[in-house]
Write a structure and sequence with these properties.
By secondary structure, the chain is an alpha+beta fold. It contains 13 helices and 28 strands. It has four domains: 3-53, no CATH class; 59-294, Thrombin, subunit H, CATH 2.40.10.120; 297-390, PDZ domain (Pdz3 Domain), CATH 2.30.42.10; 403-493, Pdz3 Domain (Roll).
Length: 495
């Protein structure tokens, strides 16, 4: 045997040679059996050695340097606010915590009703320090309406904080504490995120401070109906109550997002987490720092989704885009020549696959910018330049005009942000009037909120009008309605 062949297993061959010298392997069959064992060991060992030497395609990340360098800049936020609690009647037939209480209470209201009371509400969240002098970024819903805010650092130092600025549309808030030489986090560029990249979240889920969780980017530019101006980062990073406002790090140790919300059916993490891109959040933060109002871009259109039937009617190859239902008089789109029935396919050379993608694209455009808008009109492509306007104050939600649902014999209208907050819901339309017909037969009454129709979350009157128009006749349809703080399903059968 050659030297090169013996080298990896020299000890084994030396043992065989010793056995031969001692006369234990004199006969040929025994010697051949030992050589077979050695050759087999060489084959298996060589394969294992080659596999160990090969470089893996994907290396497992080590997150410890991120925490060691920037973990101290993540803070815990405790806020206190007050809410009004309506008193119960001494003779109420059901207790206030019963799901039937809101429905029975209106029949038993009277002079003996207990007076409303103020109740303190405490909430926990997270945040991160962006300046050595004590500026902190968090989610707006963590501190909105708070009368007392306390920030705790990882070194157990506690500070009182004040709100410098808060944006509901961006769900971003800037706080200030009196400190100096504080640890900070570096900020990244969320526009460079790609699906599949590793992420690290730090926060206080359920009050467990300085908890670290990891995952990957699941999707980018994800629209959500509750926050139309935020192109969310979707990930599978475990996020739970208390994580809100905390940082989302990339592998360079840069903050690329603010942990904001989850989709859940039971209040716990189910694999769908959503974070505000840091580029979006910092647009608000920079305005707060300079004491400026945030100006949102405005196109001046009411849009709806494109169904398969609508796509065929509009001579579209696919059911994509945002269909213009109406335009604001003298709005930017109307002035540029856009018309009802046009389907917006691209905005500023970016594709618009669904109606939810358009609001964040428009809202994040600086007013006064000229933007090419690609549309389909009567089956023909067309590009029109639009000078984007400034979103007017107190402008109602796109598609927020009252709508009469003739098939249900009722009228619905939009919900204000305040009403949504008071009822602790994120979407829905309010029932304004009900005439004898399918809705009344199902028990739907004025003042109720329709949250869901046939399994679809309701976000605007124009959306529910589109859904109702396309529902099958003489078929039971489930409708999720809400009165006060309780929700229940009813069944509507349409003619």
């Amino acid at each position: 045997m050659t030297h090169s062949r013996r080298r990896p297993y020299a000890a084994l061959y030396d043992f065989i040679d010793e056995e031969i010298d001692m006369g234990h392997l004199k006969d040929r069959p025994h010697r051949r059996r030992w050589e077979t064992v050695v050759l087999a060991a060489g084959f298996v060992g060589g394969t294992a050695w080659q596999a160990a030497a090969a470089q893996p395609l994907v290396g497992l990340p080590d997150f410890t340097p991120i925490i060691q360098h920037y973990g101290a800049a993540v803070v815990n936020i405790s806020s206190t606010s007050t809410k009004t609690v309506h008193g119960a009647l001494p003779t109420d037939p059901v207790p206030p915590n019963s799901p039937f209480y809101p429905f029975f209470r209106r029949f038993f209201s009277g002079p003996n009703t207990a007076p409303s009371q103020k109740e303190k509400v405490e909430s926990l969240g997270s945040g991160f320090i962006i300046s050595h002098s004590g500026y902190i970024v968090t989610a707006a819903h963590v501190v909105r309406g708070a009368s007392h805010i306390v920030v705790g650092l990882s070194n157990h130092h506690v500070y009182k904080a004040k709100i410098v600025g808060l944006s509901v549309r961006y769900d971003t808030a800037l706080l200030k504490i009196k400190g100096h030489d504080l640890p900070t986090v570096p900020l990244g560029n969320s526009n460079q995120l790609q699906v599949g990249q590793w992420l690290l979240a730090v926060g206080a889920p359920f009050g467990f401070y300085n908890t670290v969780t990891q995952g990957v980017v699941s999707a980018i530019n994800r629209p959500l109906s509750d926050d139309e101006y935020i192109p969310f980062i979707q990930s599978d990073v475990p996020i739970n109550p208390g994580n809100s406002g905390g940082p989302l790090f990339n592998m360079e140790g840069q903050v690329v997002g603010i942990n904001d919300q989850i989709y859940t059916s039971n209040g716990g993490y189910m694999g769908l987490s959503f974070s505000i891109p840091i580029n979006t959040a910092m647009r608000a933060v920079h305005a707060f720092e300079h004491h400026q109002a945030i100006r949102f871009g405005w196109l001046g259109v009411d849009v709806q989704g494109v169904s398969s039937e609508m796509a065929r009617a509009m001579r579209l190859k696919e059911p994509v885009g945002a269909l213009i239902a109406s335009l604001a008089h003298d709005g930017p789109a109307a002035k540029a020549g856009l018309k009802p029935g046009d389907v917006i396919m691209t905005y500023d050379n970016k594709p618009v696959y669904s109606v939810g993608q358009l609001p964040p694209l428009v809202g994040n455009t600086s007013p006064g910018t000229r933007v090419p808008v690609g549309i389909m009109r009567n089956g023909h492509p067309l590009t029109i330049d639009v000078r984007i306007g400034t979103l007017p104050k107190n402008l109602r939600h796109p598609g927020s005009h009252n709508v009469t649902l003739s098939r249900m014999h009722m009228e619905v209208g939009p919900l204000t942000h305040e009403a949504l907050s008071d009822m602790d819901i994120h979407h829905g339309v309010v029932v304004l009037t009900v005439e004898p017909g399918p809705a009344e037969n199902a028990g739907i009454a004025p003042g109720m909120v329709i949250q869901e129709l046939n399994g679809v979350a309701i976000t605007s009157p124009s959306q529910i009008a589109h859904l109702v128009a396309n529902l099958p006749a003489h078929t039971p349809i489930p409708v999720l309605v809400r009165r006060g703080k309780e929700s229940a399903y009813v069944v509507v059968t349409l003619p």
